[in-house]
Design a protein that fits this description.
The structure holds three protein chains of three kinds.
Chain A (H helix, E strand, L loop, with lengths): L1 H25 L3 E2 L2 E2 L3 H28 L10 H22 L1 H16 L4 H22 L10 H4 L3
Chain B lengths: L1 H22 L7 E5 L6 H15 L7 E5 L6 H9 L6 E5 L2 H9 L9 E9 L2 E5 L7 H10 L5 E5 L4 H13 L4 E5 L2 H9 L5 E2 L3 H9 L3 E6 L16 H5 L7 E7 L5 H15 L2 H9 L2 E7 H21 L5
Parallel strand pairs in B: 1-2, 1-3, 6-7, 6-8
Antiparallel strand pairs in B: 3-10, 4-10, 4-11, 5-8, 5-9
Chain C lengths: L1 H16 L2 H19 L5 H12 L4 H19 L1 H6 L8 H50 L3 H14 L8 H16 L1 E3 L4 E3 L5 H4 L4 H19 L13 H13 L1 H15 L5 H15 L12 H16 L1 H7 L5 H12 L7 H5 L1 H32 L4 H20 L3 H19 L3 H24 L13 H29 L1
Antiparallel strand pairs in C: 1-2
Classes of the chains: A mainly alpha, B alpha/beta, C mainly alpha.
Chain lengths: 158, 323, 503
């Protein structure tokens, strides 16, 4: 937990520095007619850098005194989270190629079948019907084209 | 036998001609009509007005689908059209931000990256003050501005866009100085003037007409060579009549398609838009909106856009909007 | 006399709205609206934009009733996902998650939903009464709001929400700063410059609020849930008649908060984008005036009532600037206004005079639609609560799918789906490490509005900050904001003083 605390704070500090770099380009002074474009982001960025500095300092202090403390994720929790995160990320990446709806068919089928261990008939029915229904509602009725991916043009059924 | 031969020939010719007619390009999937502005703005309203007309008059076998991509003052929309090279199913409706956005922000984009299709209309600009202000003519108002440089607030849409360009044109032509206050949209600009938070605006007719009719705003001058040729509007003097200095700025409302499409595909859209501008609905729309119907296509359009770009670059450099 | 006239006109408007054809249109619109409202990322604005081409062939009054009903339906539906899944579908529905979701999680989803829709109903009724009888006066009041006044409202909202912070003041500050910075990415309207885009096209569009919230709240919550183990069963959620009765009793008990929320909502609704500050402000005020402050964030009834009444009150009064001034009070109103122009009606002050039947038809339909909407939503409550009973292994991937559609639909960008996943991870880490998410979201949603108002005001004042204290409206608002900001410190001093006296 404390290690993670320090790492996240350092990451945020990095964000602060990246922001500062751009606000200096924009100008962060108080011009003739009030603040310049970089004024507010500059002080926000500076604030993040200063605050995270103290958070890191405090984190290191307690770390030295009391040791690493509890892990950030409950024991065994990380596997559970990855069981959600990896398929979800996979679905997103896959939709770049074959489109959101088709990627969802695979995602739903994988999740219900492998993780949920449901009966295969149910798996097939639900994972086909839900994306099909949304495809009809969004792409066909409401004319909101959802991402079809790189190969989507060739996979379009109708 | 001869007759048979002739008729066969005729038939073949017939089929051929049908074949030729069929060769004219037609869209095969819904056309993405990209609006480089948010929902509810001038460009968006126009796009959502055109789309149902296309379906109503059967001008295209596939519907137009309006998609807003407003990020970065339209830069996001332009970049996405530019990125769809060779795809004939992507078109966009642009305003003057076609020139001003890349010039002011340095986004790597130029109108030459797109295929010009047609200019549909031009938007007028009018100088407005609050109806309770003591200035009855443009001369009275601009003289007052001249006496106290920087005291008068000019409200406008965005920074380094058409409203600020016109403000700078006036400052340079008459040797005066406004304090320019940028707002998010034209309707907002008009209301800030009605609420007396600013001293004047250069709103489009459509943005201010309702407040004018309600007696809250007063038009002082039209910023064009000629008066607006619409019943209610032809009473407003031009800048030349009011101040003796000719001044004109009109805003583009035109259609561009993705780069690298074929001549047939261009012709399809030019033909379609020409038919749109000939409908009764369209004619009523542009007169309601106080627009100038000015259809232009092909190389004339490209030439005009090129001239406009040069004018914008010149005005924005002089006004210190490009560094 | 005026009020009597308005009453007659209202009766005329009601009779227009009650015509069978219009009534049917209203019900269709409401159901569509509830559906787009429930789906995160799709809101009334999308719903109306999609329907505008269809309304082309309808008479204008029926057309506006259809669009307005989509809008009301979306307002009712907007908080349903906030309560059930911690996923706010609209900016103003964020404040509802603070207490609505904990209440639903503890098995009282039915009560939370009933409370929410009843508060919506009350907010709407108060809004529509004001709209019907005092429209011209309120419109004049709205005109008094220039950039300095808007800035004062923003500062007041932030002051009211100072207690949203977590245990660590440093981390709360980081969260707020981060929210502001995320809001600043993209085009700066005041200077016309691109900020923090580092030359990349995806960053030009900035970070959409909806995408961030879907990730931070929705996905973050899913990660937190599965960390405790993948439970494949759904939550037991039954709606009993007792819940309705309970909710009604709570409404009476918290009538003051209900009134305050509705009035804050109606007041701020006349400002563009006013519903979000309204719901946050109402929540903040309710919390600081409450005796049982510790209950907030754990499922307090008044923590649902205040923001919901404010949100719907604001949604109702947002129609006013459109009708009377021709400026949209919300994104949906912007789309409806575009529709008005297409139907050949010019929104603005002349609408009342030139097309009185149309305006009163619209106002009449607000009355009808809100009563119908309330009953429709109440009828749907068991259905929505039943969603929670679905097995997790179906529900979870479907939620992620729906979230992805929502994130994509905001700007039609694939990159937003990637951001959503990223924000989900950030939301999880922040929750674990005690960085408060609520103030970050508040800063993200109001940050750019607040910043541009402040800078516009300073341009108007030529750099002089005294413009924020300009009478008659900005001055009292700023004083109230300062008072609220220092209230916690003041009350500490008071305690210390009295403690000293005693010893």
């Amino acid at each position: 937990m404390r290690k993670a605390d320090i790492i996240v704070a350092l990451g945020l500090m990095l964000v602060g520095f990246i922001v500062l770099a751009d606000t200096i380009r924009l100008g962060f002074g108080w011009g003739m007619s009030g603040p310049e474009a970089g004024f507010f982001p500059f002080y926000m960025g500076l604030g993040i850098v200063i605050c995270t500095f103290f958070i890191v300092l405090r984190g290191i202090k307690t770390y030295k005194k009391e040791g690493p403390g509890k892990p950030i994720v409950v024991e065994g929790g990380l596997t559970q989270i990855l069981w959600v995160l990896i398929p979800a990320a996979g679905m997103v990446l896959l939709s770049e190629l074959i489109g959101l709806h088709l990627a969802t068919v695979l995602f739903l089928a994988f999740y219900m079948g492998v993780v949920g261990k449901m009966h295969w008939i149910k798996v097939v029915l639900v994972s086909l019907l839900i994306p099909l229904a949304t495809y009809i509602v969004f792409d066909k009725l409401f004319l909101i084209p959802l991402p079809e991916g790189l190969w989507g043009k060739y996979l379009r059924p109708f | 036998m001869k007759i048979l031969g002739v008729s066969v020939c005729c038939l073949v010719l017939c089929f051929l001609s049908i074949g030729i007619a069929d060769a004219a390009w037609q869209p095969t999937k819904p056309i993405e009509f990209i609006v480089p502005a948010g929902a509810g703005g001038g460009a968006d309203v126009m796009a959502r007005f055109i789309s149902p007309l296309v379906s109503k008059y059967n001008l295209s076998p596939k519907p137009f689908v309006v998609i807003n991509k407003s990020g970065g003052a339209g830069a996001e929309g332009f970049m996405s059209v530019k990125g769809n090279k060779g795809d004939p199913h992507v078109i966009t409706l642009t305003l003057s931000n076609l020139f001003t956005t890349p010039l002011a922000t340095g986004v790597p984009f130029n109108w030459k990256d797109l295929t010009p299709i047609a200019r549909l209309a031009l938007d007028y600009f009018v100088l407005w003050v609050n109806a309770e202000a003591p200035y009855k003519t443009a001369k009275e108002y601009l003289d007052a501005v001249k006496k106290e440089p920087g005291k008068f607030l000019m409200g406008g849409t965005g920074t380094a866009q058409e409203d600020q360009i016109i403000t700078i044109m006036m400052e340079q032509a008459f040797g005066l100085k406004f304090t320019y206050v940028p707002f998010k949209g034209g309707g907002d600009v008009a209301v800030q003037l009605v609420g007396k938070h600013t001293n004047s605006t250069v709103n489009n007719p459509a943005e201010a007409v309702s407040h004018w009719k309600a007696g809250r705003l007063r038009p002082l001058a039209t910023i064009d060579h000629d008066r607006i040729a619409l019943p209610d509007w032809n009473g407003i003097p031009t800048m030349k009549e009011a101040m003796g200095v000719d001044m004109s700025y009109l805003m583009l409302r035109g259609i561009f398609a993705a780069p690298g499409i074929t001549k047939e595909q261009q012709d399809f859209y030019v033909d379609l838009l020409k038919k749109v501008t000939e409908t009764e609905e369209w004619k009523k729309y542009i007169s309601d909106m106080g627009l100038k119907g000015a259809f232009l296509s092909g190389s004339d359009y490209a030439k005009w856009v090129g001239e406009q770009e040069a004018i914008h670059k010149d005005l924005m450099t002089k006004g210190g909007l490009i560094k | 006399m005026d009020i009597l006239n308005n009453f007659n006109s209202l009766m005329m408007g009601l009779s227009v709205a009650m015509q069978p054809y219009n009534l049917m249109i209203a019900v269709i619109g409401l159901i569509l609206g509830i559906i787009v409202g429930v789906l995160p990322g799709l809101g009334g604005a999308n719903g109306c934009a999609i329907l505008i081409p269809i309304t082309f062939a309808m008479p204008p009054t029926a057309a506006v009733i259809l669009l307005a009903c989509v809008y009301w339906g979306a307002l009712y539906g907007g908080s349903i996902c906030s309560i059930l899944f911690n996923i706010p579908g609209e900016p103003w529905a964020v404040a509802v998650t603070f207490d609505g979701y904990p209440m639903a999680k503890s098995g009282r989803a039915g009560k939370a939903l009933v409370l929410s829709s009843l508060s919506h109903g009350v907010g709407a009724v108060i809004g529509v009464i004001l709209l019907t009888f005092f429209a011209p006066i309120i419109a004049e009041f709205a005109l008094k709001f220039g950039p300095p006044e808007t800035a004062a409202v923003m500062i007041l909202t932030f002051s009211a929400m100072t207690r949203l912070g977590g245990k660590s003041a440093l981390k709360s500050l980081v969260a707020i700063f981060l929210g502001f910075i995320l809001a600043a990415v993209g085009m700066d309207i005041v200077s016309g410059k691109l900020r923090m885009t580092y030359g990349t096209v995806p960053l030009m569009g900035g970070f959409s609020f909806i995408v961030a919230v879907i990730g931070l709240f929705g996905l973050g919550e899913i990660f937190l849930t599965v960390e405790q183990g993948l439970k494949m069963e759904g939550i037991k959620a039954r709606v009993r008649l007792k819940d309705v009765w309970d909710a009604l009793r709570e409404m009476v008990r918290y009538r003051k908060i209900l009134m305050m929320g509705s009035l804050i909502g109606c007041w701020l609704g006349i400002q563009p984008g006013g519903a979000t500050p309204a719901s946050f402000m109402a929540y903040g005020f309710a919390k600081s005036s409450a005796a049982d402050k510790d209950q907030y964030g754990k499922g307090a009834s008044s923590g649902i009532i205040a923001p919901e009444a404010a949100g719907h009150g604001a949604g109702t009064s947002a129609t006013l600037p459109m009708i009377t001034l021709g400026i949209p009070g919300s994104p949906t109103m912007a789309v409806i206004m575009g529709g008005l122009m297409i139907w050949g009606l010019q929104p603005g002050p002349m609408l009342f005079k030139e097309h009185a039947d149309f305006v009163w038809g619209l106002i009449g339909s607000i009355w009808v639609a809100n009563f119908l909407g309330l009953f429709l939503v109440l009828a749907f409550v068991p259905l929505f609560a039943a969603i929670l009973k679905i097995r997790f292994s179906i529900l979870m991937p479907v939620i992620i799918y729906v979230c992805a559609i929502g994130a994509y639909a905001v700007n039609n960008r694939m990159i937003d789906i990637h951001y959503m996943i990223l924000f989900g991870i950030v939301g999880f880490l922040f929750k674990k490490l005690d960085y408060p998410i609520a103030p970050m979201v508040l800063a993200l949603v109001l940050g750019s509005m607040a910043e541009s108002a402040v800078r516009q005001a300073l341009i108007m004042g030529r750099g002089n900050p005294l413009i924020f204290f300009r009478p008659p409206i900005a001055l009292p608002l700023m004083l109230l904001a300062l008072f609220l900001f220092f209230l916690p410190t003041l009350s500490k001093w008071k305690q210390r003083l009295s403690a000293k006296k005693e010893t």
